Amino acid sequence: MTERADILAETHRVPRQRIYFLDNIRVLLISLIILLHLAITYGAPGDWYVREFRFEDIPDAAKIIFIAYNGTVQAFALGFFFMLAAYFTAASLERKGKRRFIKERLLRLGVPLLAYMFVLEPVLRYFLYGSELDLLSYLWKYALSFRFSTGPMWFVSALLLFTAIYLVIEAFRSGKPSTPQETPSTVSLARLLGFTLLTGFFAFIIRLGYPADKSLPLLNFKLGYFSGYIVMFILGIAAWRTKWFDRAAEYRAWPYFLLAAFLILSLPLMFILGAGDGVESFMGGVSWQAIFYAMWEPFVCLCIVIGISSLFSRHFNGSGGLWGKLPKLEYTVYIIHPMVITAVTLLFRGLTLPPVVKFTAMSPIALAACFTASALILKIPGMKKIV
Fold first, then answer.
1. Cβ(63)–Cβ(364) under 8 Å?
2. Measured distance CA(145)–CA(289) in Å, rounded
3. Mind listing the pLDDT tens digit for each residue in 208-230?
4. Cβ atoms < 10 Å from Cβ of 4
5. What phi and psi values does residue 43 have, to the nearest 5 degrees?
6. 23 three-class SS
7. DSSP string, 156-192
8. In this structure, are residues 190 and 183 in contact, taking their beta carbons and an 8 Å threshold?
9. How far, in Å, are 25, 80, 158, 253, 309 from residue 21 at the CA level?
10. How many angstroms separate the Cα of 141 from the Cα of each of 184, 237, 267, 317, 368?
11. To the nearest whole number, what is the mean pLDDT of the chain?
12. CA-wise closest residue to 356 among 55, 49, 46, 31
């Protein structure tokens, strides 16, 4: 059956022109995620390897700015990444066939994930927190303790899981591989709103027992956000089948950005109104804060995803110049950015500035360091086959 599916995949391959604006969106998303982690270093709520300021100790104005930025990026960037990953997953499976696809996925996703868990993460912790042991002895002791963590690479482990489920579903189809429609089509706004409401509802239900800021051990999954990730992965498959991104320019970006701006500004306001119960009240449980945050996220995601898709398809659909080289670095940037921005923030730790000012000053430095380091890594022979 597998061989038949592979043969069918060969005969049903449909040549597709590269949609460059999707690559450019991925560069934007990884940059925003790097800055999200940098913001945690300088006082935003969340977990990270290095923290110069605690959220409780920074000025109220800084709290509002960091909540607005990190809350917005959390609401849409990772979900958008899952959508794009699903889009390219479906396209790759249809183009390459099942055997080649699985082999390449395990190499490109599995190898970096294992390298991060068993090498990069413990080495980073060794240099951050110190040890009386030498590095090799520390790594051996770390391995025996079974304290492994995926860290930010939880995204890759989740993507592997989602991809495996997608492959199983495809295997139970009629044996004929999925192929995109001949002509692009749009998805009704009513259907998208329905997905958005369901996403928020299930997020609220999950967070009754598992708050959004709580992570699973080892895998580091924050289950409170996974209803959104699952829905966005499904929408990514649907976007490939309907060629939705081919018609993204037909949407007008500004109404979605305008609504997103209104929603983003409402988050600090709701935080001020509900601050008496602490940030934790937004993360889960039975409270108006938890309901608001669970519903706020998918609506922000919907608006920004449509707005960015429209904007980039109209104005950033090229692959020339420096910008055209950055998409080739994006995955490597994601893998190494914890080490790079940790090194950068430690290097400038002696620079005394207010939290938001320091975050603003360090942002271009951190981004430049991540992309430069990635470019150097990819010059190593054989690395391009993996990352």
1. no
2. 39
3. 999 998 988 878 899 999 999 99
4. 10
5. 125, -10
6. helix
7. HHHHHHHHHHHHHHHHTS-SSPP---SS-----HHHH
8. no
9. 6, 14, 25, 15, 8
10. 55, 42, 44, 49, 35
11. 88
12. 55
Q: Which of 310, 308, 303 is nearest to 262 (CA)?
A: 303
Cα 248 to Cα 312: distance, rounded to the nearest angstrom: 9
Which ranges in the chain belong to alpha helices (H)?
2-11, 20-41, 60-96, 98-105, 111-115, 121-129, 135-145, 154-171, 189-209, 226-242, 253-274, 280-283, 288-315, 321-325, 330-347, 355-377
Name the 3-class secondary structure at 7: helix
Do residues 349 and 363 touch, judged by C-beta distance below 8 A? no
Contact 154, 112 (CB under 8 A): no
Of 90-94, 135-139, 156-160, 248-252, the one with minimum mean pLDDT is: 135-139
Which amino acid type is present at position 361? A
What tokens appear for 382 in the block?
Answer: 């054989």
The amino acid at 139? L
User: Rounded to whole angstroms, what are the CA distances from 36 to 31, 48, 118, 301, 308?
Assistant: 9, 10, 25, 16, 18
